[in-house]
Amino acid sequence: MKIGIYNNETAESQRVTKLLRTEMERTGLAYTDHDPDVVVTIGGDGTLLSAFHHYQKQLDKIRFVGIHTGHLGFYTDWRSFEIDDLVESLQEDSGQSVSYPLLDMKATYSDGEVESFVALNESTIKNITRTMVCDVFINNHLFENFRGDGLCVSTPTGSTAYNKSVGGAIMDPKCIGFQLAEMASLNNRVFRTLGSPIIFSADSKLILRLREENGHVLTCDRDQWVLKNTDDRYLTELAYSVSKQRINFAQYRHNDFWNRVRDSFIGGVR
Ligand code: NAP
Q: Hey, which end of the chain has fewer CB within 10 Å, N or C?
């Protein structure tokens, strides 16, 4: 079994990376950059997002393990003082894993070109120069005309990230589906949206047909693109569905999801 390491640049993450490399050498665990079976990320949930996109083409053969160098994260089960335990688990690895759904996004441009993306957390679309207007289609039926700041489409594991900040529901990551949450929708006698988040089933298809040609900001996890009409080429449509790919984590111990939600967002409960 070959182990890859993906760390952020903080002093603590570099210290932990050095420690892990030393322990791996001491115990005979093989290190690789190119074709790892397990990728250990060292940093935060954001670091795991970056590692996911770095190794996106190898998702079917990689399992991830996250070490958090700060507080405990949602993708990062291990703390920096647990390196010895983690190395022991890597040595005893028998392929145990847990996998979670991802989100496919297809962006269509006015010249017919289609770009494909996969999100671990979410994709958002906003218009930063004016009110965003778009037609929302669910399973090819027009559902509503949205006006507002933008829309956030998230995975179950991404539901605790941006989605939560915009009032989306937290999804149990064992659910297979995805979620649409509004960002500051306009609701009055003229304009109307549902006004609440929607959770879609595994076979659903969501299409956002954009009305403006300029001013959009499109995101996919940590990546962001500011889009404008250049030479009569602009973004016209976004299509979302559950991806055929999944993210796999090496599961050496069980961390209850709802305990993590409570610890992260509520704290002490009497
Ligand atoms: P960032 O602003 O540096 O980090 C955003 C925060 O979100 C960090 O504290 C990160 O945890 C946390 N996070 C990431 N994934 C999470 C998850 N699945 N559940 C709970 N918390 C999570 O931005 P970044 O590092 O580039 O990360 C991009 C992500 O930031 C996006 O995918 C989006 O979800 C989130 N974001 C949130 C808002 C908002 O809430 N208003 C706005 C923009 C982006 P760590 O500290 O452990 O890395």
A: C
Cα-based distances in Å from 269 to 172, 263, 265: 20, 9, 11
Which band of pLDDT confidence, cut at 50, 70 and 90, is reported for residue 262? Answer: very high
The whole model's pTM is what? 0.97
Q: Which long-range contacts (CB under 8 A, 24 or more apart) does 12-15 make?
A: 12/69, 12/80, 13/42, 13/43, 13/47, 13/69, 15/80
| Residue appearing with tokens 């959770």 | 199
Q: Tell me what pLDDT residue 113 has.
A: 97
Cα atoms in the Cβ-side hemisphere of radius 13 Å centred on 109: 15
Substitution candidate for ligand 1 out of 75, 102, 121, 255 with most atoms within 8 A of CB: 121
Nearest CA, atom 11, ligand 1:
45
Alpha-carbon Rg of the chain, whole angstroms? 20
Per-residue pLDDT of 149-166, as tens digits, reads: 999 999 999 999 999 999
Q: How far is the CA of 162 from the centre of ligand 1 (A)?
A: 7
Q: Give the pLDDT score at 54.
A: 98
